[in-house]
Structures are given as C-alpha cells and as structure tokens.
Amino acid sequence: MSAGETKAIVVRDLDCGYDGNPVLRGLNFEVRHGEIFVIMGESGCGKSTLLKHLIGLNTPLAGQVVFLGQNYCAARGAERLEIQKRFGVLYQSGALWSSLTVAENVALPLIEHASLEREVIDELVMLKLALVRMDAYAHYFPSELSGGMKKRAGLARAMALDPSLLFFDEPSAGLDPISSRELDDLMKRVRDTLGTTLVVVTHELPSIFAIADHAMMLSKETRGIVEIGKPAEMAKQSTHPAVRQFLNRWPRGQADAIKTYDTN
Questions:
Q1: Can you list the positions of beta strands (E) in 33-79?
Q2: How many Å apart are CA 213 and CA 249, to the nearest integer?
Q3: Do 149 and 143 touch, CB atoms closer than 8 A?
Q4: Cβ neighbours for 228, distance < 8 A, ≥ 6 positions apart
Q5: Angle of helix 147-158 relative to helix 177-194, nearest 10 degrees?
Q6: Residue 52: CB atoms within 10 Å
C-alpha cells in the first residue's frame, strides 16, 4: 500500500446481472482499509448478487472492481490468481468439504497456493484454528460440528493465506442468537488484531449495528444504492424513508409516518 492510500476496495460504475439483464446498475462505492463494511437491504435487493460479482464468481456487465489498487475485472491469468490470493470468502453454509477434517479443510489453500513443507502447513493450520477457537476440533469432520463451529472453521480456511480482504455471505444465517453474537465478536477481533478489511452481506439488524463501521443499503426498486453511512446515524437521520424503515424495523405501509418522523 502506498503512502496515504486508504481505499481497500474501489467500485466504479458497476452493473451486475445475468445473461445481459441487470440486477444492479451504476454502483459506485469505496471501502476503507481496516473497516467492516456491511452490504444490507431487504430480500431480493441484490446483496448476494453483488458479492458474487465482487469476488469474481460472476462477470460484471460493466464497470470496475479495484482491490488494493489492482483492477480485478481486467486482470487475467496469473495476475488474476495473485489478486484472488489476497482475499478470502466465508460462504453462507461454511462450504467445508464433508470428507475432510477441519484441519484438512483449512490446509487446502496452503497446499494449493503456498510452497511450504507439510510441517509448516500443519503449524499454520493450528494457528488459524486457534485464532477462531477451533484448534480443539481440528480432527473433527464437518458433520460433527454445530452451525456456528462450521462458520468458524470456514473462517479459518478463508484466512489461511493471510488475505488483506475477507468477504462474508450472510454469516449469521441459521445461527442461534448466542452463536451469531460470538461470530460478530470474532469478526471484530479479526479486524482489530490483523487489520483485515471485512465486507459483510447481511440483513440481520443486531449484527449490522454491532459490527459495521459503514453500511450500504441496496434497493430492489431502483436497482442501486440508496445510501451509505454509519448505521446508527442512518437509523435516526437518513432522509430516505426506506433506510429508516429498514433500520428501525418499522412495518410496511407507514411511509407517510416515516417521512415526518422527528429525529430530534
């Protein structure tokens, strides 16, 4: 990172969609180094679609995604692979290989992408598992883990190559409130101890208020960004009724009341 550089991710004029049909259009936003940035909005607004386009599972219809100063959309071959090594992804299900132990799952990226002796890989695996408090379960299979444990094991694997960026797709999905809170605390600890930048897709309000430095709300109606800001401030001061309705859990059909809501 060059002196004075503060942006981990820069997205410019991004169109996301399938078979040439846009789901989201003209997205422009930035994510600062070392922050937790939440992508939020109601079901069907395109949160997971945006994530898939950011990490390269789908090709954008137009626009740029720049990670750490490198244009990921334009990169090909070895250059694209090098960029991919700089970010990790925790998928909603954890996406662990059921036939491998927790330790073997975490070792996979290191075996594939790092030229290290097996003893070194094993040591790194245990360090990553200790960071997420899963070292005692290294030899368990995914079927023997709870939902929260699978998420933590998946996070350890996502961090295997010491990425600068981590992406999370609905990390609290399927978790009980206690496990969800523990995962929130873990994400904050990763950011605080390692300086990692986190991008989190979620509609879970407790998590949004607990972890987000900034949040971006997407709209199904406009197919774009409604607002970006600090969640607590947006809940009280946003000039967009839909934002305050979402963050305050107001029922649908109260748009008039929301527009006249007294924020003082």
A1: 36-40, 62-67, 70-71
A2: 20
A3: no
A4: 29, 214, 215, 216, 217
A5: 20
A6: 19
Query: What are the tens digits of pLDDT across the range 179-200?
Result: 899 999 999 999 999 999 999 9
Q: What is the pTM of this model?
A: 0.89
AA letter at 113: H
100 burial type by CB count under 10 A (0-12 exposed, 13-18 middle, 19+ buried):
middle
pLDDT digits over 100-158, tens only?
Answer: 999 999 999 999 888 888 999 999 999 999 988 999 999 999 999 998 899 899 999 99
- Strand order of the β-sheet with 7-18 is 21-32, 7-18, 62-67, 70-71
- Token pair listed for 231: 């969640």
